[in-house]
Structure prediction request, 225 residues.
Amino acid sequence: MGVSMAFEERRRILVKNLKEEGLIKSGSVELAFLKVPREKFVWEDEVENAYLDIPLPLGKTRQTISAPHMVAIMLEEMELKRGFKVLEVGCGSGYSAALMAEIVGSEGCVVSIERIPELVEFAKRNLEATGYGGTVKVVLGDGCLGYPPRSEEEIYDRVVVTAAASTIPKYLKKQTKQGGILLIPVGGPWSQTLKKLVKISADKFDVKDVTECVFVPLIESDEVL
Ligand code: SAH
Prediction:
């Protein structure tokens, strides 16, 4: 067995590939990918696979950390800026939250909701260990209700859902600020379309289809459908 390549080198190669594929386009997304150590967010037995461009299982939770190319597509479409307030539904490992925290900086914040307690603990630990604990607030709960739950205030510059929805939860639309972006995979269990909604006014959105994708299901509570 040869000496395995250092993680930093593997990270650089992954970023180079994602740039060549035209998925990483902006300097801010590139810097975030170069900085956040994916090996600190994957499950212990997957560390060696941290820089493969594939989704990886999060232990026995039946959830996954998304593939880097999908995270890159989402981050570019979110058009994040320093100081933004972001809501993420589906914290999982905390990896995408850390990337977003890197871009919005300490002037901004990322609230990330997760429904599985084991993953809330896992993500919190990963985010603390990598220095993003102050910028990312991990919340246990049903992300379909937004945060604070059921608030109808326009709170966030950006809202992103990292699980597949059958419909777009109304509280997530409400909590997106005017001019803000809501990014969400919508469709059936086996394939979805990543939709980008730009909020024009209280109940008017400009909708664009970004790409076809496959995410684990968003567990939607009946109440909000
Ligand atoms: N962004 C994550 C990927 C998470 S996969 C990462 O970078 O690792 C999607 C996550 O959404 C899973 O952890 C799943 O438990 C969570 N999820 C599904 N439905 C949810 C809901 N209604 N509220 C909050 N989290 C939910």
About this structure: The chain has one domain: 3-224.
